[in-house]
Protein: Metaxin glutathione S-transferase domain-containing protein
Organism: Filobasidium floriforme
Amino acid sequence: MFEKSTTTTTAPQHPDQEGSWMPQAILRFYSTFPLVVLPAETSPIVEKITEPTLWVKPTYDEDAYGWASSDPSCLRVQLLFLLRKAKVQFKAWDNVEAAPEGTLPALQLPSGELLAASEIRAWLEREHPLPEDTRALNGVPTQEAHTTALAHSHLILSKIFPAYSTLQPLPTNLQLPFPLPTTPIPLSSTIYHSLPLWLRDSAGAESRQNEELEIKEKEGVEGVLVLGGLVREHVRDGNGWFLGASEPSPLDALIASHIYPLMTLPETFRLRQTVDTELELKAYVQRVMEVAGRCVRGHVRGSE
């Protein structure tokens, strides 16, 4: 048990106190522009809750799914909860750095416990498990389907997600006084070689970075096209679930959570254009979102 300290100290003089040690010019400055100390930003959790609350990155997209986070990792967990009809509400957490482990989502329980992103899945599987007959196979009907699901998951997480991560649009509520260039401005050879060495190195690094971004975008586009073909192959009659699952599985949540954000990108983005050509994939993702949306108990707009 901590004891209250009995040590006394002399409080420093405030700049406006008579006989201050500060020069009069500085005192006059502070009298015109007072020094204001703002409180440190803290967790947005200020009220007691009665049901589990999933804190997620907000969405800036004005569409029918205002509850859906624009972040694929957050949206994936939202869908995992909703597709199991788990009782949960969603709230936006704008300052990601203040979240547990510095990442979202985070799950707040009525007991006051706050689970980090890495702890949520285990809690969900314990409190809201999949049906017993498909639990061991993560919701799909056969071992073969489970193996296929793992391969599809790798495609999404290693190709599509990195591509989206490099192309996330700025929030629509952020207004810039000038347009951002969508392509790098090339330098002529004469200008390039006239630059100082350190600046040339910087330009070269930026060029390599742009090449890496283009590679990721290309791989993401190829991943979307492959996934579109897999939907045509593995979703029965255009109205079932992936790999013949009788109910939406975690694979359906994974696919929808990584494709739906692409559908909300500006139409000039190549990934958005590619998804728009895959009509069966879009219809499938919309169906997953609609089924999940029927169970929504809250929204995730940014702080008002």
In short: Confidence is low (pLDDT under 50) at residues 1-17, 169-189. The first strand starts at residue 53 and ends at 56. The chain has nine helices and four strands. The CA atoms of residues 141 and 264 lie 32 Å apart.
